[in-house]
Structure formats: structure tokens, C-alpha cells
What we know:
Oligomer: single chain
Amino acid sequence: MTEKLFEADALRKECLATVTGCEKLEDGFGIELDQTVLFPEGGGQLSDKGWLVPEELANIPKLGESLKDVGTAATKTGSGLGVLAGQIVGSVVKEAAAAVSGAQDAMQAAVQKFAGLPVNYVEETKDGRILHHTAKDLKVGSKVQVKLDWTTRLDHMQQHTGEHILSYAFWKLYQLNNIGFHMSERLVTIDLDKEITLEQAYAAEDFANREIWANKPISISYMPHTEVAKLTMRKKNTKLTGMLRIVAVEDGDICTCCGTHPPFTGTIGLIKITKFEKHKDGSRVEFLCGRWALEDVRKKVHYITEASNMMSTKEENVCAGIAKFKEETAALREQLKQKTQALQAGELETLLKNPPLDSKGNKVLVAIEDNYDPKSAKTLYQKLTAVEKAVVAVIYANGPRVNYMFGLGQGAQGDCKELIAKANELFGGKGGGKPEAAQGGAMAAAAWQTKAAALKEMLLKA
């Protein structure tokens, strides 16, 4: 079994391990180690990421450290040249050591990037084995340096520990229970067993952040389930038995948990509720913590600032400005609707006044419109197909596309499937339908109106 070093020290970033197993998976290989610092997905927390670096490449000689030692010695003894000279020599050597050390850091990063085997997912199997998912296999018995992607670990710890504290806030203030927890990339949610108000959400958020700013210690302990039952906890899982892992915030939340947590609440940085809504009989609360919360707030502040600049108003007036804009837009749309209806009435009158007939005696009603919206086109189409013995074509441009609809009025003779095929060929578009109705569209070329007129002539000659 793999020793889980992350359980005792969530801040440990690397370890030397021996490969104890390697199995073929659908998407690569599952590497099993005798110990690891990489947390496998579980308990609602996402998997860590990292690298497995061959031992022979993991430890570049610490030349920089050796030079530092020489510099220190030179400073202390004067190196036979006098104390002042020794200090000068020591300072020069230390400067060189810093430069070499920086180069070594770059070399280590390069080794990790190019020689290290990326681990993008870690899983714990049902039988308790921990598999590190990689693209290549490793020889059983070989040694590797296991290196943690710290940014990913910190992100996940901040979200998970933040979930503990926010859940505790709702429980402590309003006796609400967390009955569901989900973490994905940039989205974390908890489900509460009752609906909440905006005021309650703000109060819980404030409470949770005070717990963070107090920088309270977070402790990990183990105790038998019989002792756990005596603790004051917001939720207890009676199905868990044996020795249980307890995560406790000083004078705050206590719960059983298998995840990684920092030693102090201050590491979380920030908890920000981004949204809440009714979910079943309770509420679903979306929130983010730490870096994810900071970047989300930064992005939204940018959006508000941009909106404020576009509207030439103060940021606090953006919502009122949007409401006013919606009202004005609605009024303009109503005016446009009325004018469109008036135009359509005049167009209908023109089309229906002595309409041309085809060879079968059908009335040929063709409307060719520029800058027409789909809703108005559909209305026009419905009015034209209500005319008895009419063969109808509505051809209109909307943005970068030209759309066309064909239909038959009651008693008309024709086949709209044939018409749509001709239109597709003419416009280079796609579409289909039935003998009595068909529609399609294409990208609007510069000569689309000329093609529409040619299609009209085809209908008249049919």
C-alpha cells in the first residue's frame, strides 16, 4: 500500500519514491508508488497534479550551496588577506553562488518540464491502491522524485477548507445543513437543506471570512468512531466506523474528512459567494476561495468598469443604466414592430393586387427583403401562404446570411422540395422540407438579390 505523506503534511511538495506497480490503462499507465505527496481525488476534492522525475535527474549537484559555504568561510577568516579583504572575497563568492543557484533553479525547472513524467490525475481504487496516471510506463523497482504541482494543491485546499468554514457558518448562524458538496475547475457548490435569503448569504460570508482573517489553527487528528460521536459536529456520518480522520478549526468547524488542509485558516485568503438559487427544497450556493475568488472578482470588476465606461456613468449606476437601456430598447422594438406591420400591410396589398400567375394558374407571391429579421419574415410568410392557390417565396437577408422559405396556399399546385433544391443550388446553401413547405439558407453573397430575382423568374415560368 502507498504511504500517504499528504495526510501528515499537506505542505510537503516532494518525496523520493520507489515504483511498486505499473499497469496499462485505457488512456496511459497507472503508476503505483511506495509513498506519495500527490492527493488522489476523493471526498469532494479534486486530484493533485505533479511530475515523476527519474532519481538520476532529480538531484542536480548543489554547486551554489558549496560556493556559499566558501564565501562564508572567506568572510570569517579573511582568507589570509586580512578581514576586509576576506569580506570582499566572501561577498564576491556569495554573489557568484546566488547566480549559480538561480541557474540551478532554472535547470531543475527544465528537468521537471522535459524529463519529468507529468501526472495529470491521481486515483484511489476500490481496493485502496493509489494510481498516478501517466502517458508512459515506468519500470517496477525504479526510483523517482515525486514533485507536487503546488499551485493546483493550494487552489484545491483553499476551496475544500473554505467549504468546511462556509458550511459551518450556515450551520452556526441558521442551523442549515450542508447535504451536498461539489468541486470542479473554477466552480464550487454546497447544497443546503433549506432556502436562504440574500441577507443570510451575506451574513454567512462575513462570518466565514472572519474565521479566515483570525488565522485560526487547523488540526488533524485520529480517533475511534465511538469517540467521534461525542464531538459537537455540524454533521455526523454514522456509517463510518473504526479510526476516523478529524479536521478541526480552533473554536470552529469539526468534521471527518480525508482531504488536504492548510495548518491555518489564513491560507484560504478569501471566501466569496458568487451565486445562490433554489435547489429542490433548499438552496444551492456557488462560491470560490483564495486565488480562484480573487481572479473571479478581478474579472467581474473589469466587466463592471468596462460597462461603466461604455455607458458613461458611475459604476454604482450601471444596473440602473442597464434597466433604462432595456426600457428604451423595448420601446424602440415596439415602434419597429408597428412600422414593420405597416410596411407589411402595404407590401401585402401590392403583392395581392393583380398577382402574376404561373402556367398552372397559381398566384406567384415572392417577397425579397434586405435587413429583415426572422420573426417578421415568418409573419409575412404566414400571411402569404394564407392566400388560396398561392405559390409563396420569402427570401431575405439577415446579417451575413440569406434565408429562403417556400410554401403553398390552399389549392395551389407545386412542389416546395423542388423549389428548395433549386434555391440551394443557386445560393450554394442547405435546406429541405416537404412538398407543401420548405426552408433553407446560405451565406449572403454580394449578388444575392440578383439570384433572388432569378429565382422569382423561375417560379413565374414554372
